Amino acid sequence: KKVETEISVASAGNAIAGGSYSVSVAEFSDSAQIESSVFTYMLLNSDLHGTIENPRWYFENDRQERREAIDLLMLTHGWRRFRWESILAPDFKWPSFEEEKGITITGKITRDLFAIPIRNAKVYLTILNAYNDYFETRTDQKGRFRFDNLDYPDTISVVVEARKPNGRKNLVIIVDENEFRPAETQTADARAQMVLAKGDAWKYKNVKRIDYTYNPEKQKILERSKDFKIHGEADNVIYMDDIPEGYTDMLQVLQGRVPGVLVQGNTVTIRGPGSLMLSNDPLFLIDGVPVDINAFRSLNPKDVELIEIIKGPNASIYGSRGANGVIAVYTKRGEFMKRGFLDFKMLGYATPREFYSPDYSIRSTEGINDLRTTLYWKPDIVLDSVGKSTVSFYTSDIKGTYVLKVEGITADGKPLGSFAFFSVGK
């Protein structure tokens, strides 16, 4: 059976049009379903530790007995979230972090990699996919830029371009990494752990030493790569001419080829001195420009001329980003990454999943039992100009009592909560 009801939000008889509200309809099975709400949580439970029996009772009316009861409750429960001395002190402590509004992209524009910052440079941000949105800003005195209040779902393609005040594009764009790093990957491969623990000695135990031979062609390749790097001598060098053809993925090229470099699935770890960390990503460079691992993997091995592995003290010139080692790739033409141009994938917000609520007006239900106990849920009720909204849903085949709950916060920050019962019979 279809149920249609009107929700009205008001305070002291005056309609409230703004705010954020949700509505849910579920089978009533326990009084705990109505004893707590966002209203009781924000005004009571969030500040008091321990169990509070029926917190809704303290707010049902404004009688003297209720006021005395809530005073006793607050006197006998521990307050641990804050101290009154700090609240009443004249030196108010401002939050350590700014309020986050949307997705933020920040970074730095430099003349050379990790070198001189460019101030007052023009920075352009383009959101591709189906959006083609365009934003523009300028760098500050430290060469930093910021784009905030971005609101996009799923994974989106992003292009960042930078130009000097005189219009030239020979700049390096460094986009800040997401500071919320994924959890460390714990491997159950005991052999891999043993290899990391024993270090290079494990690799070289049965390796025969050979004398160094000079190769003029490889020396030319090293000379060409100097135009794109700021580090000195690399710890390991892979010449793609020495690699058999047939590889389609750059991770396959690295696999088992360099001592101390561990490839597991889609991750790469460079073992540092005394380190057994398996989840610290190295810094990836393509022709001297920082990229993520996806850009590294997207390279065609046929277009690559040289790969350098830099670790330990040799990677210190790259600062904290090189703390986990550096994998520097140089393409044959040296033009894979244009100066003043950077494209990458950005993870947006997860696409919300709509709560399934059947519409029996457009499909037959013969022979199908509807055993839903939660009939309806909508987390974003929109009120009209007079503070009202209409919701509709279908009941299930389960007979009994159901509770409709409305909770939310008004535009000026006041929590609200209410409920109503109805019965579903034969």
Describe the structure.
The chain is an alpha+beta fold. It folds into three domains: 2-80 and 351-424, no CATH class; 104-175; 190-338, Beta Complex (Ferric Hydroxamate Uptake Protein, Chain A, domain 1), CATH 2.170.130. It is built from nine helices and 22 strands. It has helices at 32-35, 38-45, 64-76, 84-88, 190-198, 200-204, 216-225, 250-254, 293-298, and strands at residues 2-8, 10-11, 14-15, 20-27, 103-110, 122-127, 133-138, 144-150, 155-163, 172-175, 236-239, 261-264, 267-270, 283-286, 289-291, 304-310, 326-331, 341-347, 374-381, 388-394, 400-409, 415-424. Strand 2 and strand 3 form a beta hairpin. The longest helix has 13 residues, at 64-76. The chain is elongated, with a radius of gyration of 31 Å. It starts with a strand and ends with a strand.
